[in-house]
Structure formats: C-alpha cells, structure tokens
Amino acid sequence: MTATEMFLDPVQSTAPALPDAQTVLSVRHWDDRLFSFRVTRSASFRFRSGEFVMIGLPGDNGKPILRAYSIASPFWDEELEFYSIKVQDGPLTSRLQNIRPGDQVIVKTKTTGTLVLDALLPGSRLWMLSTGTGVAPFASLMREPETYAKFDQVILTQTCRRNSELAYGRHLADTLADDPLVGEEAAAKFRRYATTTREPSAHMGRITDLIENGKVFDDLGLPPLDPALDRVMICGSMALNLDLKRILDARGFTEGANSRPGEYVIEKAFVG
Ligand code: A2P
Q1: What are phi and psi of 41, to 5 degrees?
Q2: What is the average pLDDT across 188-204?
C-alpha cells in the first residue's frame, strides 16, 4: 500500500457527507406495501411527540427529494423511527424502500404539527383515529409519558383495507407493555381497536360508520363521544379527515391548534 492509498478514504472520496444526514440503523418490512426504519438522531434534534419532519434522499441532480413524515418514535427516544408506504413509481419511496442499515437518509431539523398534546384541552379519554400510515404519529404519542399523565384512557383505532396493513400497529400495541417508560401505565390505560374494510377480520368497517352507528363504543364498552370528556386526534386521508371533522363538529367538538387548544385536532397522513 502506498502512502497515498493509506490516506484515501474510499467512502468519503466517492460519497461526500450529506447535510442533515442520519444513518439507517434498522429496517423492517411489514408487507409488500409498508415498512418502518430507524435512524440515528443528532443530539441537537428536538421535537414534540406527534410532530412531523421533512426526510428524504439525494436526487439525481443533487437536489434532495424530501417528503413530510411523522416521527413514529417518542421525543425521549435516542433514535428516530419512521413508517412508510412503498410507492413503486414514487420519486422518494421507490428508492427509500431499498435502504439498508448503514445507508444515509436526510432528516431536516425543523419539526412541526398539530397532533400534539398541547393542542388539546384537558379531558379524560384520548381517541387516536387513524388509517394506514396515519398511525405513525400515534406510534409516537402512545409511548409518550405525558399522554398517560393527561388521560385516564387512550384508544388507538386503525382502519385499513387488508389485515396485513395492520401488522405495524399490532406490533406497537403488543410491545407497549414492555416499554421502559410507559409500559405499566399503558397496560392499564391503552387499548387498540383495529378494523378492515376489504377483508374479513374481528372488527370490520370504516371508523366513520362505526362511530355513527355506535358499534365502536359497544365493542369497547365505552359511551359515545362527548366533548366534555373525550379528546380526539385524527390522522388519515383528506376524505377521512373531512368526514370525521363533520361528525365531531355535529357533536359539538371544536377543532384545536397549537395556538388555541381544542377538543380535537387533525393532520393529513403523509404519502411518501
Ligand atoms: P374503504 O376500503 O371503504 O375505502 P386508503 O387505503 O384508500 O387510504 O384507505 C385506508 C382505509 O381508510 C380504508 O380502510 C378505507 O376504507 C378507509 N377510508 C377511506 N376513505 C374514508 C372515509 N372518507 N371515511 C372513512 N374511512 C375511509
């Protein structure tokens, strides 16, 4: 080996470090359409559980391809977790789905979002209503100690077309009791209610219909939504969000924001 070779670092010389780059630590594929991954977290990275951030990969022309992703891990976690769909011709997820441990992903530093506990008035029951990848911010909030400090009961609903799409949410719920910070409280307060719309399962139907016909409350043994006691967070498609907004507004709920807490908050589930 010559002296020159000793000083040449092949990784650095061919792939200069990306700005805002984090290193992929693990990747898990849940089905042919969904995967989650964990990346390193800078010591200076701050966010509130439930917020989202722009993440991505460098593009061919040097310009990064960035999309909004909810952070699926809580604020106290030393790593960051994300949950994504795989769109075969999607500019970002067609490539992001192939990441492996050791690869780099861009994670911008600015975080934001309305699915935060600060945007809700005090209440006794927290409903987190999601479809598909809309479960991601709730993956963060269900491991957030303040969630259990503020609410006596926490109910996560997730509706998907098929059973295989519910695997990530089921895994989160199944491992929650082992969580070092919230495990004990969550075991007493947290419940998951999963439904499918296009495949048979224990509970079937759109969450909008199950709220309107009261089946979700019968199944869980809980009273119907009451703005005096219940607080609701919603994360799904635009159509779902609008339908749930209409249902809650008709029941006397007011929408909250960071600047003005209310009885429910909404965010569109992001498509990578
Ligand atoms: P459905 O199968 O009846 O359309 P998508 O994969 O299209 O994002 O939908 C995710 C889940 O959300 C599906 O189970 C779908 O039910 C349901 N869904 C879609 N739109 C609405 C809506 N406006 N209200 C309630 N549920 C919805």
Answers
A1: -130, 130
A2: 98
Amino acid (1-letter code) at residue 2: T
CA 167 from centre of chain: 14
- CA separation for the pair 169, 212 (Å, rounded): 24
Ligand 1 atom with least separation from CA of 159: 14
Where do the structural domains in the chain lie, given as residue ranges? 7-112, 117-266
Q: What is the CATH number of domain 117-266?
A: 3.40.50.80
Residue 8 pLDDT > 60: no
CA distance 159 to 34: 15
What is the whole-number distance in angstroms between the Cα of residue 226 and the centre of ligand 1?
24
CB of 163 shorter than 6 A to ligand 1? no
- In this prediction, residues 59-69 reach a mean pLDDT of 92
Give yes or no for residue 1 having a pLDDT over 60.
no
For residue 201 and ligand 1, the question of a CB distance below 6 A is answered with no
Residue 99 confidence (pLDDT) above 90 = yes
What pLDDT score was predicted for residue 271?
60
Closest residue by Cα to residue 115 from 80, 153, 93, 144: 144
Residue whose CA lies nearest to ligand 1 atom number 22: 240
Type of residue at 187: A
Ligand 1 contact via 160 beta carbon (within 6 Å): yes
CATH number of 7-112: 2.40.30.10
Give the Å distance between the CA of 227 and the centre of ligand 1. 25
